[in-house]
Amino acid sequence: MSYRRNFTIGRRETRNFYLTLVLGSWRKGIVGFGAVGALAALLYMPALSLPLRGLLLLAGAAAGMGLSTLFLAVSTCMRVRAQLRRSGRERYVQETEIDGFGVRVTVGKDRAKLGFDKLRRVQETRGAFYLFLSDSQAWILPKAQMEDRAAECAQLRQIFRTVIERGRLRLRKS
Q1: Is the pTM of this model over 0.85?
Q2: Which pLDDT belongs to residue 174?
Q3: What pLDDT score was predicted for residue 82?
Q4: Whole-number pLDDT of residue 90
Q5: Residue 60, Cβ density class (10 Å: 0-12 exposed, 13-18 middle, ≥19 buried)
Q6: Residues of the chain predicted below pLDDT 70
Q7: Complete DSSP assignment for the chain
Q8: 82-121 as b/e: b if 16+ CB within 10 A
């Protein structure tokens, strides 16, 4: 039971990771902005029939949530772009090996080895697996770079379900 692959981590992968972090941490805030949008629609609502009032409330909530999400996404993308330019390292190759003993990652001359018990959590999104070292740092396994995406994703899910307790797993349905 092992997995080995080299991934090229560039601007897109880094941006998607930070968008996942930001939108995940702002989830309740986005709902709050939706409530504010619904309240604003309610306060400025003309005398309309009940179904139209309901539609206007939903439109206000959707506008509040949509605008706050858009603002967060754009500001995050701008920050990631600026950070990558400052670092001078916009892409790198990440050699990843996962087996029964843990995860080993090599980037250039830097090597890291981590047991599964030290991983904060493993999260799967539509585009990648994130192996969190801390709340804001993770190794990225982009699905778009996998040769046989379905088979490799199934293999990774099986490995993670076997060695990591369920409370630290956030995997998608296979």
Answers
A1: yes
A2: 64
A3: 94
A4: 87
A5: buried
A6: 174
A7: --EEEEEEE-HHHHHHHHHHHHHHHTHHHHHHHHHHHHHHHHHT--S--HHHHHHHHHHHHHHHHHHHHHHHHHHHHHHHHHHHHHHT---EEEEEEEETTEEEEEETTEEEEE-GGG--EEEE-SSEEEEEEETTEEEEEEGGG-SSHHHHHHHHHHHHHHHS-GGGEEPPP-
A8: eebeeeeeeeeebebbbeeeebebeeeeeeeeeebeebee
Torsion of CA 81, 84, 86, 92, to 10 degrees: -160
CB atoms within 10 A of CB 165: 9
CA-CA distance, 166 to 174, in Å (whole number)?
A: 16
